Amino acid sequence: MRAQFVLSEIGVGLRRNLTMTFAVIVSVGLSLALFGGSLLMSDQVNQMKGYWYDKVNVSIFLCNKSDAESDPNCAKGAVTTEQKEQIKTDLDKMSVVDKVLYESQDQAYKHYKEQFGDSPLASSLTPDQMQESYRIKLKNPEQYQVIASAFNGRAGVQSVQDQKGILDNLFKLLGYLNGAALLVMIVMLFVALLLIINTVRVSAFSRRRETGIMRLVGASGFYIQAPFIMEAAVAGLIGGTIACTFLVLGQYFVIDHGVALSEKLQLINFVGWDAVLTKLPLILAASFLMPALAAFFALRKYLKV
């Protein structure tokens, strides 16, 4: 009987404050969708780091005849055969190096033509203007400075470049975007909490006569508070369900089908359904507990039971 009364009061409260209840549902749904999206973005960045950092190379570019005339780093002239052999020998001795590949001027020219063959500059380049290089795969991409300090400034070396630096800038940008999404989520979550508190206050005020009678007949504080708490929890849970729906639809239509980014951007290893499904219980739990706790503390102040 008591459970039936609580459930009936929940339905009455939700219908009586329909506009505010709808606002709570929408704000909770959007804020938790952003929360889930931020968690997935964080997983995506970590997965991309693991994928791309394993493939980055450190490149040692060697001086050619053109560099000897224009680049201060190549003031001693183009790289000699002895210098190339010494660089290769030193690289093979280094414990941080996993693999070393040599790229000749002809190979560099071929790769450039494949990538930028349509550019105006490509038609004026010749193989002898390209740079020979060593492409080094490190056991740990974080140890780039070991290579840089060993070979920067050496005779025959024009520059040492780390591809990881380019990726770091990309990941830093993604981190900023994720932080912006989290900031918006926090603002919307704060708005949702204010709406929940105001909804509970209005609901408690509109039923003050009923709660007064319940006090007079000896009803416990929890029994009086339960319908209000459950109203907020149910509204929040509906919002959480909407947020989960957004995430599932986003994964299905944006990543896997429809827009199908996973097919169009094959260079990016997108997170899968396992990452999405593990976030759904967390979102549903937050959508239930957050409004319930907000309503509980609001009632302590405004219901005075």
UniProtKB/TrEMBL annotation:
It comes from the Bacteria. It is found in: Cell membrane. Its main location: membrane. Keywords: Cell cycle, Cell division, Cell membrane, Membrane, Transmembrane, Transmembrane helix. Gene3D superfamilies: 3.30.70.3040. Residues 183-301 form the ABC3 transporter permease C-terminal domain. Residues 56-160 form the FtsX extracellular domain. It is a multi-pass membrane protein. The keyword Cell membrane applies. The chain crosses the membrane at residues 21-41, 176-200, 232-255, 275-299. The keyword Transmembrane helix applies. PANTHER family: CELL DIVISION PROTEIN FTSX. Forms a membrane-associated complex with FtsE. Belongs to the ABC-4 integral membrane protein family. FtsX subfamily. Part of the ABC transporter FtsEX involved in cellular division. This is Cell division protein FtsX. The lineage of its organism: Bacteria, Bacillati, Actinomycetota, Actinomycetes, Kitasatosporales.
